[in-house]
């Protein structure tokens, strides 16, 4: 698990469905795309 994981989880479970009224399918699609992206083990650039 990375340091980003809790924030991403909160965004997908709380912000999108409740505040942006995204459908469950949209939230699942975003979660799946992040899962695919992180499975590549690419380095995450640092934010300055």
Your description of this structure?
- This protein has about 50 residues and is mainly α.
- The chain contains two helices and no strands.
- The chain has helices at about 5-20, 25-40.
- Helix 1 (about 5-20) runs antiparallel to helix 2.
- The relative contact order is 0.13.
- The mean pLDDT is about 80.
Count of distinct strands: 0
Give the rounded overall mean pLDDT.
79
Described by the principal axes of the CA atoms, the overall outline is: globular
| Sheet having the most strands | none
Provide the succession of SSEs.
HH
Helix content bin: 55-70%
Which stretches are poorly predicted, pLDDT < 50 over at least 5 residues? none
Distance separating the two termini: 22 Å
By DSSP (H or I, 4+ residues per run), the number of helices equals: 2
Tell me the β content. Answer: under 5%
Radius of gyration computed on alpha carbons: 12 Å
What class do helices, strands and sheet pairing give?
A: mainly alpha
Write a concise keyword list for the protein shown above.
62% helix, 2 helices, globular, mainly alpha, single chain
What layout of secondary structure does this protein have?
Layout: H1 5-19, H2 24-38
Helix pairs in contact: 1-2
TL;DR of this structure?
This protein is mostly helical.
């Amino acid at each position: 698990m990375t340091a980003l994981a809790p924030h991403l989880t909160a965004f997908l479970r709380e912000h999108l469905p409740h505040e942006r009224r995204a459908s469950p399918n949209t939230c699942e699609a975003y979660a799946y795309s992040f899962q695919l992206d992180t499975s590549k083990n690419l380095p995450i650039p640092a934010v300055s």
